[in-house]
Amino acid sequence: MWTYFIDATEELIQTEGFRYVTIRKVAEKAGYNSATIYNYFDELSHLLFFASLKFLRPYIQTVTDEMDKTENPVEKYLIAWKCFSEYSFKIPEIFNAVFLMDLGDHPENMLKRYYELYPSDLVEVPEELLPGLLERSLTERGRFAINFIVQEGLLDEDAAEELNELTNLVWQGMFSNFLNKRNHYTAEKAQQQTMKYIQEIVEQKINRN
Predict the structure, then answer these.
(1) First to last CA, the chain
(2) Which residue from 138, 146, 176 is spatially nearest to 162, judged by alpha carbons?
(3) In whole angstroms, what is the distance from residue 176 CA to residue 157 CA?
(4) What is the pTM of this model?
(5) Distance of CA 152 to the CA centre of its chain
(6) Are 73 and 154 in contact (CB under 8 A)?
(7) Sequence-distant contacts of 114-123: CB under 8 A, at least 24 apart
(8) According to CATH, what is the number of the domain 1-41?
(9) Which residues 6+ apart lie within 8 Å of 79 measured at CB?
């Protein structure tokens, strides 16, 4: 039953647009009444979260393929950010729903639930990258990626925490401005500027350590 509503929400996002999805429309598309949806989902944001995860498949494929091309931990970290920023600016409403929207208590359980329903989305993900991709928290995803650098002795724990915080702040600031149309950047320009700042921060931290 869960998947009927998630698939209906995905279709509505594709055909009508993210902001026009309602509980009533999802119920009609799935062939049930609105009350039935609330037996499975507490609110519309939860449905949007689950459906949005389906749009992350190209991102997950790209980031795993690209990170697999190098053993250099700094390059891996920058690739992770490059892919994340590229796709986040291409489909900002999707990334906002997955990573920033308020979902109430224990959103991490919702992410695990999704991959229980759609395990094929992670079939080709290398085992070493799974823990990071199964995190919704940007802070925890960042820590996972930076840990490769720490293990190589290129950063100590304190510097790694600072790097994680700074890079997250850069992306969130750029993303918020882009999502809310506070600047005139194209998706490509926003991604380029974000990576310019992130790369400069990474280089400064690595060289200073």
Answers:
(1) 52
(2) 146
(3) 28
(4) 0.91
(5) 26
(6) yes
(7) 114/50, 114/53, 117/2, 117/3, 117/6, 118/3, 118/53, 118/54, 121/53, 121/54, 121/56, 121/57, 121/60, 122/60
(8) 1.10.10.60
(9) 63, 66, 67, 69, 70
Tens digits of residue pLDDT in 49-75: 999 999 999 999 999 999 989 999 999
In angstroms, the CA 16 to CA 193 distance is: 31
> Which residue shows structure tokens 């009444």?
33
* Stretch 105-132: mean pLDDT: 82
Cα distance between residue 47 and residue 18, in whole Å: 11
Of the given ranges (68-72, 103-107, 123-127), which has the lowest mean pLDDT? Answer: 103-107
Residue with tokens 């992350």: 56
**Token pair listed for 13:** 């996002």
Answer whether 80's CB lies under 8 Å from 145's CB: yes
User: Quick one: the chain helix, strand, coil %, rounded to 5?
Assistant: 75, 0, 25
User: Helix 107-117 to helix 44-54 angle, to the nearest 10 degrees?
Assistant: 50
Token couple for 203 = 């280089």
Write out the H or E segment, with its range, that includes residue 56.
none
DSSP code, position 97: I
- Extract the tokens encoding 182: 């506070």
Indicate the SS3 state at residue 10: helix
